[in-house]
Amino acid sequence: MISGYNTDVEHNGVVYHIQTEDKGLSSQLIVSLVYDRGTILASKRTPYNDLNADSLDEEALIERLSRQHKLICAAVRAGRIADLQQMTGKARAAKAEAAAEQKAELPVVEVRETLEESLAASVQPAAPIETQRVITVSTPEAPPIEVPDTAPPATNVELDDDFFDLPVFEDAVMIIDELQLLPEEAVEVMSELSGTERPRNDKLSVDILGETKFKGGDRLSLNILVCRGTERRIVKDAQIMVKVLGSAFRPVIFHAHSDANGLAKVHLQIPHFQAGRAAMLVKVIADGEELESRRLVTPG
Fold first, then answer.
1. CA–CA separation, 226 vs 257, rounded Å?
2. 219 touches 300 (CB < 8 A)
3. What is the pLDDT of residue 143?
4. Per-residue pLDDT averaged across 258-274, rounded?
């Protein structure tokens, strides 16, 4: 994989996040996603299998990646969200029709060219965008999710079946009705730790600030703090992924990065459910280290 782009674009008071990345030689796709607070509004997938895979021209690939990202950003900046969603629906319909007819070449290429020509004719690409490092996680790639022609619901986000069957423990707490106190003479001190230096470490840590009780149907802003080591040094630019998993609904995923203070705010919608089990999984990736934290989600 090569570097990708992440850009926030504001239009009519709404900040949209545009992400463009190379999916690698195994897929040979350039994928752009348009987010609104964790919800995918539109996607664009462009193949680059016309380039020689044995001696891939990275400069040509970077140029294509940058061009597609600039076109999407310019379209969002011009308020053409509906056009992007319509193009996404046409690409999906063309792909389904081609599969039904068992054609070797998909007509999605024609849709891609139409979109690029339309955007290039009506908007001007923004200034060069600073390249950011994309952290690659060795997890199986989820199947592509296309967006229908109409506006997607609030929970229409990227789905991932890999975590669907993870166990969720609800009965991990034992309640003791009666507490029997021992007399003072029955307690013997085996060791005295006063004055002993606390063990030190340099491990990654993640804290969910504020409310830690969640239930189905909640719409909330999750505040996450990323630190490192015994001194709890803040970690900036950490990649954060929040997954809501359940036995009665498909998983939903939200993405964020920690700021200069090690803080990240994730706006999310927990799917509504009345039965079954669910959990919220917070994964943090920083400097090649991964950390996961899980919270129980009750029916609501």
1. 10
2. no
3. 52
4. 90
Which tens digits make up the pLDDT trace of 65-122? 999 999 999 999 999 988 998 888 888 888 788 778 765 554 444 445 555 666 666 6
Q: Which long-range contacts (CB under 8 A, 24 or more apart) does 142-150 make?
A: 144/43, 144/45, 145/40, 145/43, 146/43, 146/88, 146/89, 146/91, 146/92, 146/95, 147/40, 147/41, 147/42, 147/43, 147/85, 147/88, 147/89, 147/92, 148/89, 148/92, 149/85, 149/86, 149/89, 150/85
CATH placement of domain 161-183+190-298: 2.60.40.2550
Question: What's the mean pLDDT when you consider all of the chain?
Answer: 76
- Percent helix, strand, coil in the chain, to 5, is 20, 30, 50
Q: What's the residue count for the chain?
A: 300
- What is the pTM assigned to this prediction? 0.36
Do the strands 14-22 and 39-47 form a parallel or antiparallel pair, or are they unpaired? unpaired
> Where along the chain do the CATH 2.60.40.2550 domains lie?
161-183+190-298
pLDDT tens sequence across 227-259:
999 888 999 999 999 999 998 888 999 999 999
